[in-house]
Amino acid sequence: MNRQAQSVVMFLVGAALLHAGLSGLYLRYVKAGLQPLLLASGAVLVLTALMTLWYERRKRHAPEEEHGHAHREPRISWLLVLPLFALILVAPPALGSYSAVRTGTALQKPYAYEALPKSDPLPLSVVDYAGRAVYDHGRSIAGRRLSITGFVALDRGGAPYLVRMALNCCAADAQPVKIALTGHVPPVLEPDTWLEVTGSYTARQTRDPVNNGPIPYFMVTEAKPVPTPHDPYDETWNQ
Question: Which stretches make up the DUF1980 domain (predicted)?
Fold first, then answer.
């Protein structure tokens, strides 16, 4: 491709990065903290492309003897822009139950436990509840009414989990943290449905059939479907 074509592709790449960063689409690929770098990269690419196009236009209007013989680029090279339009027009879904039931729970022992507010019910993330239930033996949450949000995954036997994919850097390294549900669980659950469950801590635990990792139970008293959150991944590990 010639310089002008390269600049157009560079401009489209930068515009796609800016679109993803400003629209929230980037959350399907990377953690929220990378948004400033993503926007800065897109701005640099767009600015570089515009400067290159301006330079090439000036060179085109230079005296004829300064020009070399121009070669026409193959049109098939423009197929390089197709992945960019796919990025803008076709947003991939966040990882869900299909990945969760085929990957072992990635629960890690927390370095510390933050003090909890006195709200009722107490909202907790899947990762926070699982960590306190397994490694703190529920000392900080026992006897309290809790509220947790995640998506539904069913194991091969139909047992329901509430799951959140925990993110280190990007969606490629996302791993599930799972909570097993017991109590007043809805009789019919669809995988990938987002639920807000209210209930309490229970000392009961099970083992993940994939990697034998610990999975705590949660005693459900109420469950209701909720919309998919703006950021479907859990970034607790990055805080």
Answer: 9-91, 133-233
Asked if pLDDT for residue 41 goes beyond 70, the answer is yes
Region class of 213: left (phi > 0), else alpha (psi between -120 and 50), else beta? beta
**pLDDT above 70: residue 131:** yes
Which CA distances in Å does 110 have to 17, 48, 238?
A: 34, 44, 12
Helices 3-23 and 82-89: angle between axes, nearest 10 degrees: 10
Sequence-separated (6 or more) residues with CB below 8 Å from residue 67:
59, 60
| Distance set, CA 215 to CA 121, 124, 136, 161 (Å) | 22, 16, 14, 9
Strand partners for 176: 165
The mean pLDDT of 195-212, rounded to a whole number, is: 95
CA 128 to each of CA 74, 124, 195: distance values in angstroms, whole numbers, following the listed order: 55, 6, 17
Q: What's the predicted TM-score (pTM) here?
A: 0.70
Contact 95, 151 (CB under 8 A): no
Over range 101-123, report the average pLDDT: 90
Residue 93 DSSP class? P
